[in-house]
Amino acid sequence: MSEEPRKERATPEARFAKAMDRLQPLLLNWMARGGTWRTPGITADDVRARKAVIGDASASLWTAGRHLIDEGERRGWSRGTADQD
Questions:
Q1: Using one digit for the tens of pLDDT, what is the confidence trace for 52-69?
Q2: Residue 1 DSSP symbol
Q3: Is 43 left (phi over 0), alpha (psi -120 to 50) or beta?
Q4: Could you tell me where the beta strands, DSSP code E, fall in 1-85?
């Protein structure tokens, strides 16, 4: 697949490819008990905003992704918006 349709997410295949680009690091951060989510200044809302494109390809995948982000926040692996100074 060329990069142009993928960047624009103009086709179902391009949306799915972009979703996978966002899902893979989410899974890696989950397996690393937060990984880069623990970077100072990063909030769970930041992660949600960055990963929201997953929902463009699959509501089910985005539901699962949100669950991982929410659970990571609950476990203290990322900060919630209310935790900001």
A1: 999 999 999 999 999 999
A2: -
A3: beta
A4: none
